[in-house]
Write a structure and sequence with these properties.
The protein has about 525 residues and is of the alpha/beta class. It folds into three domains: about 270 residues, Aldolase class I (TIM Barrel, Alpha-Beta Barrel), CATH 3.20.20; about 60 residues, no CATH class; about 120 residues, Alpha-isopropylmalate synthase LeuA, regulatory domain (Double Stranded RNA Binding Domain, 2-Layer Sandwich). It is built from 18 helices and 16 strands. It binds acetyl coenzyme *A (ACO) and pyruvic acid. Pyruvic acid binds next to strand 5.
Length: about 525
């Protein structure tokens, strides 16, 4: 395998989350959101943060004003204002959009320029010569006002295919006018990795510093970016969590991790890369767009192992089934227990929960119990708390916190402020029987209120328990309302969150089982 020579010292890592990423359907960022995301990007160690398009909307203008007023102190990154070349038939000096770029007061400005002849003729409705004049005039005007200028050559790859001479002329014109980097954009995202090298190499003949900006429409944005880097670009653009129009932009964290951990290129400080998981999840929290579990490097499943055979090898050496040490990107290995588990999976999961399951017979017994329960519909992959209770029961560890003697719940259509459901729970705890009636909005809420109330005299700590999520899934889809259902419940005590599972033909029974496990596990940990 070839490792390309070390990245030049001048290599740029350029983030466009706040501009191209924000063009994603469903993303709406306030100025405050943008400032917070910019701070996280700075912590990640990127060299450039494209903050938006000043003048295009009041939000982006306000963001640059806030940054200029000192509300954004960047330790590593340089802030970039994004815009376009001047309008056809005018002068850059008279174009309000170009003036807004100067008013943003950033050291670097990035402008998008057309490089596909058909776009010039049909979208801009101007001549090929005027487009070149727009580029030269805008770049030289910004340079004359003390800005470092990058040019995004829009639709460069499709443009090169249609009219290579013109696409290359755009690159030459931008560089001659003073652009520091000309970024080749796969705007429609239609390229494949094997096509990148030829086009990038042809542009590199011009002798200017080149960048790459890829979209993910062929699912190849990261691969195309890496291929362009191998062909000689010295500037990579992308977004966190692959945010962006349509199918998104190249995932910048994946690109950084690939180049840094596979090629050994020192693009960001290792301590910053080790924060990548935290940072990408924090940004997902701000955008309110959930990060895919399966995102490379930083997803919660990126180092999760389900297959028994994998676990048996990982038990010997975790590197046998992992391409890197997850800690390098701040992630963690997770062992999943399911019907695909073997003894080793159960032993490692048990060990992570603090149990010694080195006895092969015991581990085999627990594995069989998991498989039998999963056949009945239980799922322990995420329900760690229910797994621990099952494990303890197989180990003969009895947790006699309380014994439920009876429970019932009913729902009416009567609308009352206390809710529409009423539950009664009768139990014995610490030798004393308690009975409590709880009212709530829906049967699960009523049961939760009643169970908590009945337990409180013996275990006041349950007052801190809170049900935070509840998921129901029909298991045998061929049936109608009498289908078997699985419920997963998340509870928290303010310090930790735990998940339990219940199964039944009756959604209330399945929910009760998960709730009952949830309280038992909570008491086990708080006692
Ligand atoms: C590939 C990319 O993703 S580039 C980034 C694209 N991002 C965005 O478009 C988001 C922000 N955009 C906006 O807020 C608005 O589109 C604005 C403010 C930029 C322009 O809005 P409007 O003035 O209403 O124009 P509208 O969006 O309809 O059309 C864009 C105009 O810019 C022209 N234009 C497009 N690209 C360029 C370019 N590279 N250089 C100069 N002019 C351009 C178009 O020909 C059109 O001109 P026209 O007004 O003479 O028809
Ligand atoms: C500039 C840009 O965002 C693109 O060409 O995709």
């Amino acid at each position: 395998m070839t490792i390309p020579p070390a990245a030049p010292d001048t290599f740029h890592v350029y983030d466009t989350t706040l501009r191209d990423g924000a063009q994603q359907e469903g993303m709406q960022l306030t100025v405050h959101d943008k400032l917070r995301i910019a701070r996280y990007l700075d912590q990640l160690g990127v060299g450039y943060i494209e903050g938006g398009w000043p003048g295009a909307n009041p939000n982006d203008t306000a963001f640059f004003a806030a940054a200029a007023e000192g509300q954004l102190t960047l330790r590593n990154a340089t802030l970039v204002a994004f815009g376009a070349t001047r309008k056809a038939g005018t002068f850059a000096a008279d174009d309000p959009q170009v003036q807004a770029l100067l008013d943003a007061k950033t050291e670097v400005v990035c402008i998008v320029a057309k490089s596909h002849d058909e776009h010039v003729l049909r979208a801009l409705r101007t001549t090929l010569a005027e487009n070149l004049a727009m580029i030269a005039d805008t770049v030289s005007h910004l340079v004359a006002h003390g800005r470092r200028v990058f040019v995004d050559a829009e639709h460069f790859f499709d443009g090169y295919r249609a009219n290579p001479e013109y696409a290359l002329e755009v690159v030459r014109t931008a560089a001659d006018a003073g652009a520091e980097v000309v970024v080749l954009c796969d705007t429609n995202g239609g390229m494949l990795p094997s096509w990148m090298a030829d086009v990038v190499s042809a542009a590199a003949q011009i002798g200017v510093d080149l960048g790459i900006h890829c979209h993910n429409d062929t699912g190849c944005a990261v691969a195309n970016t890496v291929a362009a880097v191998e062909a000689g670009v010295m500037h990579v653009q992308g977004t966190v969590n692959e945010y962006g129009e349509r199918t998104g932009n190249a995932n910048l964290v994946t690109v950084i991790a690939n180049l840094q951990l596979k090629y050994g290129w020192p693009l960001v400080p290792p301590s910053a890369l080790a924060e990548a998981t935290r940072i990408t999840h924090a940004i997902a929290g701000i955008t309110n767009l959930p990060l895919s579990n399966r995102q490379p490097y930083v997803g919660s499943s990126a180092f999760a192992h389900k297959a028994g055979l994998h676990a048996s090898a990982i038990k010997v050496d975790s590197n046998l089934y992992q391409h890197i040490d997850p800690m390098l990107v701040g992630n963690d290995m997770r062992m999943l227990v399911s019907d695909m588990a073997g003894r080793a999976s159960v032993q490692m999961k048990g060990s992570s929960l603090g149990y010694d399951l080195s006895n092969r017979d015991l581990a085999a017994r627990i594995t069989e119990a998991v498989k039998a329960r999963e056949l009945d519909g239980y799922s322990y992959e995420s329900a760690d708390a229910s797994f621990e209770l099952l494990l303890r029961s197989e180990m003969g560890l009895t947790d006699e916190f309380f014994e439920v003697l009876a429970w019932r719940v009913f729902t009416t259509h009567e609308v009352k402020p206390e809710g529409d459901s009423e539950a009664t729970v009768k139990l014995r705890a610490k030798g004393i029987s308690h009975i409590l009636v709880g009212e709530g909005h829906g049967p699960l809420n009523a049961l939760d209120v009643a169970l908590r109330g009945a337990l409180t005299p013996a275990y006041p700590q349950v007052d801190n328990f809170e049900l935070t999520d509840f998921r129901v899934r029909i298991l045998d889809q061929g049936h109608g309302t009498d289908a078997i259902v699985r419920t997963l419940i998340d509870l928290t005590d303010g310090e930790r969150t735990w998940t339990t599972v219940g199964v039944g033909t009756n959604v209330i029974e399945a929910s009760w089982e998960a709730l009952y496990d949830g309280y038992r596990w909570g008491l086990l940990k708080r006692d």
